Amino acid sequence: FAELADGIVTGTDTMRARIFDYTKKDSVAIPDPYEFPECEPHAEGDDYLWFGHKSNFNDLVRVMQSMKGRKLRVVTGPGSVEGAIPWTPENMVTAFEMSNIVVLPTQEGREFKTHNRLLNSIRAGCFSVCMGHPAYLEFKHYVWVGNFPTGLKWAEHFRKDLNGLVKSAQDYIRDKYSPEAIGRQWASYLSSV
Questions:
Q1: What values do phi and psi take at 61, rounded to 5?
Q2: Are the CB atoms for 113 and 132 separated by under 8 Å?
Q3: Facing residues of 174 across strands?
Q4: Rounded CA gap, 151 and 145, in Å?
Q5: What gap in Å lies between CA 18 and CA 12, rounded to an integer?
Q6: Residues near 133 by Cβ (< 8 Å), separated by ≥ 6?
Q7: Spatial CA neighbour of 102 closest among 131, 132, 138, 135
Q8: Residue ranges of E strands in the chain
Q9: DSSP 8-state class, residue 55
Q10: 186 — alpha (psi -120 to 50), left (phi > 0) or beta?
Q11: How do strand 71-76 and strand 101-104 relate by DSSP bridges?
């Protein structure tokens, strides 16, 4: 398909490099926009949320020991994880409203993934504790990016600062990752091929 394509677009620079390694074809990275409305920051509580496709659930399983004693809500595909809230846009809005901190563990070999879950968490007013991942590094001044257990402890210790960090992150992404801004990148690219 790469040989037949007039152009190749991916969501991250990491995936762009990977495509080149495999196909020797250039591609363009156009990031995902945010999908959810912006809500007031409400990160100062102790309700945790993990959401994502069931294929990412093992990322959470790997860090469950760190989550012991913490209230954790899970939202994923219907019927895929016992006790999880089925993923729908409406259920995501409700889960974001009920949660304060989103946990985004990752595993090696998934560096090509985008920052879409992080953007949506920030927009929804939640702080995020993320493991080191290329797509999250851009946001390291606003969310925890690094060692997961340390990030949980840091967020609990600096709880009074979390809403300010979320607000700053919202200000940073509001225009840069809006559907309109990303749409303009697509329009520019498509007019050039």
A1: -55, -40
A2: no
A3: none
A4: 7
A5: 10
A6: 104, 106, 110, 111, 113, 145
A7: 131
A8: 9-10, 28-29, 47-51, 71-76, 85-86, 101-104, 127-130, 144-145
A9: G
A10: alpha
A11: unpaired
Question: 59 falls in which pLDDT band (50, 70, 90)?
Answer: very high
Coil, strand or helix at 86: strand
Given a cut of 90, is residue 113 above it in pLDDT? Answer: no
pLDDT tens for each residue of 143-190:
999 999 999 999 999 999 999 999 999 999 999 999 999 999 999 999
- CA 115 vs. chain centroid, Å, equals 4
Contact 121, 128 (CB under 8 A): yes
pLDDT tens-digit map of 67-109 = 999 999 999 998 878 899 999 999 999 999 999 999 999 988 7
C-alpha gyration radius of the chain: 17
Residue whose pair of structure tokens reads 């294929």 in the numeric block: 55
* Amino acid letter, residue 4: L
Q: What's the per-residue H, E or C state across 17-45?
A: HHHHHHHCCCCEECCCCCCCCCCCCCCCC
CA 168 to chain centre: 16
The amino acid at 95: A
**8 A C-beta contact, residue 58 and residue 51:** no
